[in-house]
Amino acid sequence: MGEEAPPTPPATSLYVDGCPGCAIERKKEINKGIPYKELLFVAATTIASALPISSLFPFLYYMIEDLHVAKTEQDIGLYAGFLGASYFVGRFLASLFWGVVADRIGRKPVIVFSIFSVVIFNTLFGVSMKYWMAITTRLVLGALNGMLAPIKAYSIEICRPEHHALGLSVVSTAWGIGLIVGPSIGGYLARPVQQYPGMFSDKSIFGRFPYLLPCLCISLFAVVVLVSCIWLPETLHKHKNIGNNEIEMLSDPGTPRTEDIHGGKNLYKNWPLMSSIIAYCIFTLHDTAYSEILSLWTISDRKYGGLSFSSKEVGQLLAVAGAGLIVYQLFIYRPIHKFLGCVNSCRASCALSIPLIASFPFMTHLSGYRLGLALYFAAIAKAALGMTILTGTSLLQNYAVPQSQRGAANGIAATAMSFFKAIGPAGAGALFSWAQKRQHAAFFPGDQMVFFVLNIVQCIGLVVTFKPFLAVPEHYDLK
Q1: Quick check: bond before 335 cis, omega within 30?
Q2: What's the maximum distance between 2 C-alpha atoms anywhere in the chain?
Q3: Which whole-number Å values give the CA distances from 39 to 53, 148, 189, 214, in the listed order?
């Protein structure tokens, strides 16, 4: 039915003065409750990092039009896909580096630098007047924003073992909220002259740069988070003049002792780690492609199989999905995880997603409140199911390695995932453009083909959650 929490073997309470990791361990030993303050920091920094990733989706269609790079309307999706993929290409090139840095100098410096890069390069993206500038700023932002690997390690290290699922679910939920609220910000604030002519004039800075306002709002939020990072405690153990045996005994005594299982083992030969990363990559590929397709599909004209939504309506849809995701994480996810465990909750969520995705193209036959109810319910359910899957696979990754390798392990996961996420928008954009040109095909015409391909990827993901494709860490009992 469910999975047992990883056992916590007895450990010697030996701490080193001045070591931030030891200070956190001492605090966890004294305070056995949930570290709400630290988790609040985790949520805020994760949202600040995630907001820029998808904030461009609602206005991406219009931005490509304004940059005058697409020769025909049907080609817009192709150029939009390349622009959406550029961030993930940058992250693919640098994620492993940032994971190793986080293991060497600490989690906090990498997190702080990542938020700083959001402030600078997200703002520069908002003033892009050329296609090459837009792609370059997104590429550099992806390369310098290396927070995903250390923040996952951090969320595990600030929690006692019984709260590990909560810690990583905060990261997954905050990330999901950022990926959903980001588009709502983009949808409501992009092209303010057209959307709010009484408040903004053509001669204002927002008239010259129609996509600066949403980027600027996100950057200002990142500034606030950057200042709050002053109070962010470090969790990495830093010991000087102490024997290796004692360091191993000191290292993260409150977490599963994976040193006894994988001690010093090459991460690439750690099959429980690599198999969970493979599953994680497939699901992130699916989620990224789904996010881009949902925005392009809802905005595109009904004659091409879309819904003819405005960017504001898309933003509203994604904002409601984000609110639903918060409710799910606070009140529903933990009981589900406790009952089913990581693996079974992933399998169930993946299986439920398949008929849900298949229903999207048939919503074009609805209108009015019936369309609203169906679309909003589907968006909320898909966000919740996606968060459950990604949290479960992330937990398996972190349980497969000791603390000393956790940053590097998450760096490998972020590198591989970024490659697949780069394929996602580019592939989704190309697929969407191709599908729009085959509205009267006999086999899955138009948008039906788009969602059919999404379901193929989801089915592959479901298969890899079973043996022999997925290996669960030896110390993590699966019933």
Answers
A1: no
A2: 73
A3: 22, 15, 29, 26
- 395 contacts 409 by C-beta, under 8 angstroms: no
In the structure, what pLDDT confidence band is assigned to residue 7 with cuts at 50, 70 and 90?
Answer: very low
Q: What is the pLDDT of residues 301-354, one digit of tens each?
A: 888 788 988 877 887 887 788 788 888 877 898 889 889 988 999 999 999 999
Judge contact between 428 and 81, C-beta under 8 A. Answer: yes
Model confidence, pTM: 0.71
Q: Which residues pair with 325 in a beta bridge?
A: none
Both tokens of 301, joined, read: 């004209």
Q: What is the DSSP string of 156-168?
A: HHTS-GGGHHHHH
- Residue pair 148/50 in contact (Cβ under 8 Å)? The answer is no
Residues 6+ apart with CB under 8 A from 446: 304, 305, 361, 435, 436, 438, 439
Integer Cα distance of 85 and 81 in angstroms? 6
Compute the distance between CA of residue 258 and CA of residue 3 in angstroms, rounded to an integer. Answer: 17
Percent of the chain with pLDDT over 70: 90
